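Quick review question:
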């Protein structure tokens, strides 16, 4: 997959575009994707919840039980230009990584569900077994600042249960049979709630750290480095509305 994806509404579009071999229109189009990811053989868990607003803004809840650096917090993506962070420690030079992780994991999950259940979610109240093997096509996931490839052959097993017409829970094991990619367990829910999240213009930015998303250049000992990411901003906006009206250049 050569296309690079932006980090607002296109996060969800990217999730859907990653499933180009399934029926059209794409049957899995949730606006909320929550994932608890465990690598088989390791005790740590990673939880991400990606919520998309109708205007393309997004909220990511992030929590990891990593024994060395457990943390929990929230990331907001506003107007495709701003990233707001609360409760998370971001590594300098890799500030966008946690947002990328949530986006790439969401793409992977929707690809697995779309490949294994190409007709879409089961009917409300029903559970459906998942068992699918792909021998040829790899899974490719990407954002504007990160990408990953899971080579074939790979397989997915587990089940999905529709709690309602808008919410499906899942519990699946994803196994890549070549290379050094460990088997992982994914469980959680995907949904399209009738009341989507709304990040109001009146929301205060107090307590949030603001980053600017986009391409940048940096001078290093090896010369000028061109990259895409999130850099801390000195913007003076006090509310989301003021931030949306601010030129990110």
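Suggested answer, residue by residue:
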């Amino acid at each position: 997959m050569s296309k690079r994806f932006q980090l607002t509404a296109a996060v969800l579009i990217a999730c859907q575009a990653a499933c180009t071999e399934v029926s059209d229109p794409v049957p899995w189009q949730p606006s909320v994707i929550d994932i608890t990811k465990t690598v088989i053989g390791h005790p740590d868990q990673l939880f991400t919840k990606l919520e998309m607003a109708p205007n393309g803004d997004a909220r990511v809840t992030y929590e990891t039980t990593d024994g060395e650096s457990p943390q929990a917090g929230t990331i907001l993506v506003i107007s495709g230009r701003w990233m707001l962070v609360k409760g998370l420690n971001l590594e300098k030079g890799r500030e966008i990584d946690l947002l990328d992780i949530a986006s790439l994991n969401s793409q992977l999950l929707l690809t697995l569900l779309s490949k294994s259940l190409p007709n879409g979610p089961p009917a409300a109240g029903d559970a459906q077994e998942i068992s699918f093997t792909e021998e040829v096509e790899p899974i490719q996931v990407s954002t504007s600042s990160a990408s990953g490839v899971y080579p074939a052959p790979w397989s997915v097993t587990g089940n999905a249960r529709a709690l309602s017409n808008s919410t499906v829970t899942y519990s699946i094991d994803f196994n890549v049979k070549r290379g050094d990619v460990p088997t992982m367990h994914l469980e959680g829910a995907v949904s399209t709630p009738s009341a989507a999240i709304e990040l109001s213009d009146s929301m205060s930015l107090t307590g949030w750290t603001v980053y600017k998303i986009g391409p940048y250049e940096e001078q290093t000992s090896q010369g000028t480095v061109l990259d895409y990411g999130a850099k801390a901003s000195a913007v003076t906006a006090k509310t989301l509305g003021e931030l949306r009206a601010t030129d990110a250049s």
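Why it works: The chain has a mean pLDDT of 87. The first strand starts at residue 32 and ends at 39.
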